[in-house]
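Sanity check

After download, print the first record. It should look like this:
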Amino acid sequence: MPSAGRIMRMSIAGVVAAASMGVAASSASAKDVWLWSCHGPNGKATSTPGNGTELGGRVEAVNGGCAGDSTTAGLKLRLTGEGSASLVVTMPEQSGLNAKAIKVRGTAAGLSAANVTLTANGTAVNPASLATPVALNPNGTVTLKLSCSSECSGSPELTVYGIGLLAADDSAPRGGSNWSSPVDHEMKVSPSYTDTGAGLDRAEISIPGYPNRTRSVSFGACNDLSPNSADNDRPLNPVACPNGTSQGTGPGGAPLPLAAKTVTLQVWQDVYNATTKQWTLDPLRLPEGLFKPRVTIYDAAGNTTVEQRDVEVWHPVLPSDTQELRISTASVTELPGPNVVPPAGDGGVQGAQSSQCRSPRLSVILRSKPVRVSKRVPVLKYKKRYRFTGRLTCVINGKRQSAPKRTKLAIYNKVGKKTVRKPNTAIRAKGKVDLKLAFVSSRTVIFRYTNAGGQKSEVKIKIRITKKSK
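Expected C-alpha cells:
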C-alpha cells in the first residue's frame, strides 16, 4: 500500500475556472438595413423626427402623430405661402451609420405646381412615387423638405407616416459572455455586448443534438417591422435597437462611451423549495456529460458574433431524509468543535455499533495505468473507466482495525472553486476501497470519510483529461 505522503503529493486544488468569458468569433460584411422614423411599413411606432426651421410653412400631427401604432398617423408638412417646411431624421450618434437612400411612406397633395419642390438633402424626391428609394450622398442626417420658391398656390402638403433611411452596416457585435462550468441545477450564459451599427437585436443559445434547448432573448425590441418582406426594416430607435448601455454625458455634454449591454440566456433551472427542502427538477435539464453550447449574437443588420465552449453538466446527489449518521452511540474524544454534526450521508458507518470508528485513516491511489504522468499529475483518457483502490481503517475498541464492510465513503469532484457531491461508494471487506470512475474533464477527485462525531479523513487526487491516446 502506498504511503500517505505519496498520496498527498498528488493532491492540490482544481485549476479550471468556474466562470469565464467566452472567446468570440465575428462574422460581418456590409449588410443593408432600412431604419424607420415615425412609423415602420407595418404602422409600428418607432421614433419622432425633428422639425426643421420653418419659413412660412408648418408641421402638424395627424391622428396622434408618431406616438402610437397606426398606419394612418404621422406628421403633415403644409405650406400656405412662400417658404418651406421640413422634417429632420438623424442616425443615432453611437451607431456611426450614414444614410445612402431614402423612401417615404405617405401621401402628397397640391405639389404639381412648378414652384413646389420636395427634396431630401437637396436631392429631388418624386411626390408621385414616394415609396421608390432615392439615392443620397451618405450622411448621418437627412432633411426632407417641402418648399415653394414663390407664393404657393393650391396649399401643397405632404403627409408622412414613416421615413425609411437605408444604411450599410459592416460592423459585428463586440463583447463576450460569462460562462459557468461545471453546472448543476441550472445552465445560463450572460452575453455582454456593444454594437457600432444598426444596434443589437438578440442573443441565442443552442446545444448540438438538443434542439428543444434553444433559447433566444432580445437586447431591446429591435424586431423586423416587415418580416414577410425581402427588405430588412428596423426601428430607428436607440432604445429599441441599443448600441450598448448609456453611461451619461461627460464634460461639455458629449456622451460617454457606451458600456456593454447584458442579457441572460437561461437554458434550464431547477427550483428549490425552502419549506420542504426539496428540488423540483426542470424536465429540460441536460444529463451529466460534456456539451458545447453555441451562443450567437445578432445585430439589426444581420451581422453575427459566435461563441462556443465546453460546459460540463454535473448532477449532485440530492439531499436524503436518512438521519442515522447523525446518531452517535459511543463517546468521542476527538471532535472538530462543540455541537458539530456532520451532514447526513457524508460517509460513515451505517447503523448503530458497539464501538465507533474513531481516528479514521483513509488511503486511495489510482490503480489503473494512466495515459501518462505530467508534472506528477496523472493524465487520463476521456470517458475511460479507471480503477481506484485503497483502504479505510479506524480505531475500534482501542485497536486500529479495518473499517466495517458497507461503511459509506463520500466522493466529491472539484473544479476551480466549485465542489459537487457524487454518489457514495461502500467499503468492501477488510476495509478495502475498490471502484472504477470515468471523467470528461480535468478536476480534483476527493474521497472522504466522516464519522458520526465529525472526525474525517480524506484523499485528494488531481487528474487531467485528454482525448489523445498518448
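If your output differs, re-run the checksum step. Summary of this record's structure: The chain has three domains: 4-16+317-466, 19-29+174-313, 31-169.
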